[in-house]
Amino acid sequence: MMEEDMENGRPYQERPRTFSTVRSKSSVPLVFRLLMRINPRALIILSLLVFTGVLYVGASTSPIVVFVFCICTLSLFFSLYLTKWVLSKDEGPPEMSEISDAIRDGAEGFFRTQYGTISKMACILAFVILAIYLFRTTTPQQEASGLGRATSAYITVASFLLGALCSGIAGFVGMWVSVRANVRVSSAARRSAREALQIAVRAGGFSAIVVVCMAVFGVAILYSTFYVWLGVDSPGSMKVTDLPLLLVGYGFGASFVALFAQLGGGIYTKAADVGADLVGKVEQGIPEDDPRNPAVIADLVGDNVGDCAARGADLFESIAAEIISAMILGGTMAQRCKIEDPSGFILFPLVVHSFDLVVSSVGILSIRGTRDSSLISPIEDPMAIMQKGYSVTIMLAVLTFGVSTRWLLYTEQAPSAWLNFALCGLVGIITAYAFVWISKYYTDYKHEPVRLLALSSSTGHGTNIIAGVSLGMESTALPVLVISVAIISAYWLGQTSGLVDESGNPTGGLFGTAVATMGMLSTAGYVLTMDMFGPIADNAGGIVEMSQQPESVREITDVLDAVGNTTKATTKGFAIGSAALASFLLFSAYMDEVASFAQLPFKEVDIAVPEIFVGGLLGSMLIFLFSAWACSAVGKTAQEVVNEVRGQFIERPGIMDYKEKPDYGRCVAIVASASLREMIRPGALAIISPMAVGVIFRILGHSTGQPLLGAKVVASMLMFATVAGILMALFLNTAGGAWDNAKKYIETGALGGKGSESHKAAVTGDTVGDPFKDTAGPSLHVLIKMLATITLVMAPIFL
């Protein structure tokens, strides 16, 4: 019976295909479980009442906010359509469903445990923020508006907790769809590559639309609530131009959760991946995602918790931080220029991302299935299909951005200013496209850099590592040049917009840079769709391999997986570029906040002052130490996985002959517990470092008669950390992606194909690159933005 099953390509059929050791109770959040128990009609009535209340608050604030709410609501309905469409697809044969169930159970169990830990840390930090704000000094603007310390403290803490909650929900949405779409993509690959591509894209699109919608909705609701509650712009109350500063806590909460989600998920996925590859591929010579590998389920679970849940929280945080920083700068500029109605400049970012939802939805729908049930044509590969969708999205984004600037940024004081800002947005859109293209060039095996890296594998493991490191270093040059040109161009366009302050000085430069950042993120929905596509395709390939499907099906998923590696690398490059611009904006907001609290001018940071130079050194050191601890965490956990997998092959010699099953649950348990333990140290370093440096140099400054020394040292630390972090993240992400696709290129049959010495060297390079591209690299650009938000929130303790 065993021999017959193996001849049919279906080992293990004499036993039930279950993975009971991986199962755990449902991790559906309590809010969703309660909603599911409510009568459907009552739920509809409740939803209508909530929507009516939201519209009322929006209408009391501005018609622009009502427009934003309507677009977000329609986008949520569109996401429901995508969900229904994806879930209507079949899950394939029972063996596929059972493997998918095991992945889903493992991912949801880890998600519940991880986010339980993160929520406890968030509550502790919320109490710290509350204590700081209750005892801090108030600004003249707050005193004039009657906003006391207690009110300010409770607002900041509530914003922080709401941002953390929304970021967690964004992560849950990313994981929820991926663990249900993977098996449907696997099943579709048995029929058509184009159908499998369409399902993966639409599943990623659902997550992307929900994440962007939540970021926009969250900021808009918070802004409107504060506007109505505080009676903004009424006599003796807060001015609308100061209101965006109350939203900073929201961005900090989102950054906090995103950082720990990225660290924990990245450690989980890459420790399992490295352990599975080193023992399975290199030592035992079995294929990737082979069911005989005890770490294969942990590896597939990791794709969901690391690449989907963490990336959802990450992109949510990126959009929220960019919106808030742009709103702050828009309000500041409008106040300095004495613009009669500043609401357009403040709410402009919300409108841009509302249009982002529209254009990204069109881009997602532009990728359609085909009646041809064959492989994707060599002429029209999956990457080309997705690039066409991206091109459609970009063209529509250019049009909607121009409409937005004319609608909201036109002012009688400078009638042509809106055109300059539209050009700033165009600079941002071009920058985004350039980043996607550069990342694709350095990580896609259709281009020379990855092929040369693959060729270096033919001479050994060492030359592969050397070539990969040099490629990663080289790949930092073009993105830095692009960012530099974008910042200078946008700043110059803003300065020449014609907007001036009371003294006649141009004031639009920083807002021009903010508009460029919005332009770069004006296609964030589609970019996140491409990012989510990668892990879904990777999981689908694993399910196909584990369920012993025909080789033709695996060929389809291999093509999609290779494209997914490239899209993940391009979206990481995109995220780094947006992080650089957003951090520049938040840095400017930090200097304004310090000047407001201290009532002293703070317009420059002089690194010729020894203490300030030391702050810069500490900021650069922080980046390297954080990266080292993140990679070390992966290495330590991977060692545990390697020892476990080796031990199972020794304890159960029948595994290689399909006579015994591996214990997948033991590897899942190892990486789950280790990743939660190891994520604490680098995360704590990121939070504590700026506060400790600021307080120490504040004390030193007061003892030497330099009242702003603490704030200036923290500014220097933030500046150097941003520069070093951008370069390090670019290096890590690109090198890791290139190593991965060099291995994929050899697996297509080049340079000896699978099992050759070149392939073994490439696998070594891939394992080195795993913690680079999926743990340290993605965590770094979250760290950059979190440093900017935490310094802005904690500014009072540095004075």
From TrEMBL:
Positions of transmembrane segments: 42-59, 65-87, 118-135, 155-179, 199-223, 243-261, 346-368, 389-410, 416-438, 450-471, 477-494, 506-528, 573-591, 612-635, 683-701, 713-732
Localisation: Endomembrane system
EC number: 7.1.3.1
One GO cellular component term noted in the UniProt record for this chain: membrane
Top-level division of the source organism's lineage: Eukaryota
Enzyme class: translocase
Record-level Gene Ontology MF annotations: diphosphate hydrolysis-driven proton transmembrane transporter activity; inorganic diphosphate phosphatase activity
Membrane topology summary: Multi-pass membrane protein
Protein name (Swiss-Prot/TrEMBL): H(+)-exporting diphosphatase
